[in-house]
Amino acid sequence: MAFSRQKTVNEHKISGTYRKDRHGNRAQAPALEGIPDPPEKLSKEAAAHWYRKAGELHQIGQLHQIDLDGLARLCILYEVADRITQGMNDSWGTELYLKYVKELERVSKLILPLERDFGMNPVSRTRIKIEVKKTDEFEDFQ
């Protein structure tokens, strides 16, 4: 089944498909002003992923308080993938190497849907519309 994400209210407004009767009651989480510190449960390696990915999401206005738990899970999975990759490098050419390959494949299947939800791949990123803030409040009346 193909992934289908419902448009946000802002996406409907930008594309001209907004209808108050259909889209007016949707809750929208405001974007965070800054990048929060990573949760204490994250290791040093996962925290490094946190700062990098949170920074990328913040730059495009897609870092929301409600998404921080999902972002933490994604960072933990990135760390697991890094450790598996290191194990693969250390066991190159052995039977153990194939076990690492299978485990990396399993973890990758967990990472991909989370990346898609956060717009971290080219296809899902095309679905994200960024609303440009108006500098002149009377721009609509000119």
Task: Characterise this structure.
- The mean pLDDT is 82.
- By secondary structure, this protein is mainly alpha-helical.
- It has six helices and no strands.
- The longest helix has 23 residues, at 68-90.
- The protein is elongated, with a radius of gyration of 20 Å.
Short note summarizing the structure:
This protein has 142 residues and is mainly alpha-helical.
Tally the beta strands: 0
Shape: elongated
User: pLDDT under 50 segments (min length 5)?
Assistant: none
- Average pLDDT number: 82
Helix segment tally: 6
- Rg, Å, rounded: 20 Å
Distance between the termini: 47 Å
Proportion of helical residues: 40-55%
Largest sheet: none
Strand content: under 5%
Question: Could you outline the blueprint of secondary structure elements for this entry?
Answer:
Elements: H1 9-15, H2 20-23, H3 44-59, H4 68-90, H5 95-117, H6 122-125
Helix pairs in contact: 3-4, 4-5
What descriptive keywords fit this protein?
mainly alpha, 0% strand, single chain, 6 helices, 142 residues
